[in-house]
Design brief:
This protein has about 180 residues and is of the alpha+beta class. It is about 25% helix and about 30% strand. A five-stranded antiparallel beta sheet has the order 2-3-4-5-6, with helices on both faces. Strands 1-7 form a two-stranded parallel sheet. A hairpin with a 5-residue loop joins β5 and β6 (about 125-130). The longest helix is centred in the C-terminal third of the chain and has 15 residues, at about 155-170. It is globular. Bound molecules: nickel (II) ion.
Length: about 180
């Protein structure tokens, strides 16, 4: 089922999400809905708080991006209770957007390599290193579980310049091709 995406300004996007355990109700369905909503909105990943569910879960799927980048092929994963245990490498700047902040794209500086511990959809434990674009997406989605948005990482000047646009989004004054919701 395609779910509405919560917009900037919704309190759920600012909450630290809760860890979950294997018996969590309707988890399969939530995961399926997250993927469906991601595809519908032409995204490459989505965190549960973005559909109003404050749990430590996000999904990523870059397989639909046309690219020769081998790191992006078959990169489809479910991350449950993730914990980034180290950030490494140099910081690089990349232009980011977010389905909860439609119409805004900004250069964001992040580390090139991360090590993350997480559980998959069957609650098997993994510890993996990611770099490049996948590491970038994971850091972005992970931030959602911490109540952090990419606009928080911009300079105070950039944030000031975006303020009126962000205010408009939080009032639902925004055009999107996908369903959105703003809860204030
Ligand atoms: Ni996002």
């Amino acid at each position: 089922m395609i779910l509405p995406v919560y917009l900037y300004g919704s309190p759920v996007l600012r909450k630290k999400a809760e860890s979950i355990s294997p018996g969590y109700p309707r988890l399969r369905e939530i995961i399926e809905n997250l993927f469906e909503t991601t595809y519908h909105s032409d995204g490459i990943g989505m965190a549960a708080p973005q559909v109003g569910i404050s749990i430590r879960l996000f999904v990523v799927d870059t397989s639909r991006i046309e690219s020769d980048e081998p790191l992006l092929k078959d990169f489809k994963k479910v991350f449950i209770n993730p914990e980034i245990i180290s950030y490494e490498g140099e910081k690089v700047v990349y232009n980011e957007g977010c389905l909860s902040i439609p119409g805004i794209r900004e250069d964001v500086e992040r580390e090139t390599r991360i090590t993350i511990r997480y559980q998959d959809e069957d609650f098997n434990e993994h510890e993996e290193q990611f770099e490049g674009y996948p590491a970038r997406i994971i850091q972005h989605e992970y931030d959602h579980l911490e109540g952090r948005l990419f606009t928080d990482l911009l300079s105070p000047l950039r944030r000031r310049l975006l303020k009126s646009k962000l205010n408009a989004i939080s009032k639902g004054k925004v055009d999107t091709t996908y369903r959105v919701k703003n809860v204030r």
